[in-house]
Amino acid sequence: MNKSQLISAVAEQTNVTKTDVKRVVDSLFAIAEQKLAADEKIVISGFGVFSVAEVAERMGRNPRTGEQVRIAARRNVRFRSSMDIK
């Protein structure tokens, strides 16, 4: 499911216009991005936890040439589910 499909599904279930749902979804993503950039966790009860993890610098390999390359340290968003999928 992509973003537009999510917006359509929510609009259909809630009888709210797609324009209004798009504004809410965009706001949700913008706020989540701001909070994660500030190293805050996002906890959604019954769904899961979004957090930021530091990934250390490491050596990798260029698959085309076989040459070793340094992969810079970075921050990744992690998600830990708090529900079982049936």
What would your notes on this structure say?
This protein is of the alpha+beta class and 86 residues long. The protein has a three-stranded antiparallel β-sheet with strand order 1-2-5. Strands 3-4 form a two-stranded antiparallel ribbon. β3 and β4 form a beta hairpin. The chain is 37% helix and 31% strand. The model has no long low-confidence stretch (mean pLDDT 95). α1 crosses α2. It has two helices and five strands. It has helices spanning 3-14, 18-37; strands at 42-44, 48-55, 58-61, 68-71, 74-81.
Which terms summarize this structure?
86 residues, alpha+beta, three-stranded antiparallel β-sheet, two-stranded antiparallel sheet
Fold topology:
Layout: H1 3-14, H2 18-37, E1 42-44, E2 48-55, E3 58-61, E4 68-71, E5 74-81
Antiparallel strand pairs: 1-2, 2-5, 3-4
Order of helices and strands: HHEEEEE
Q: Estimate what percentage of residues fall within beta strands.
A: 25-35%
User: What would the principal axes of the Cα set say about the shape?
Assistant: elongated
Uncertain stretches of 5 or more adjacent residues: none
Quickly count the helices: 2
What's the end-to-end separation, in Å? 18 Å
Q: How would you sum up the major sheet? A: 3 strands, antiparallel
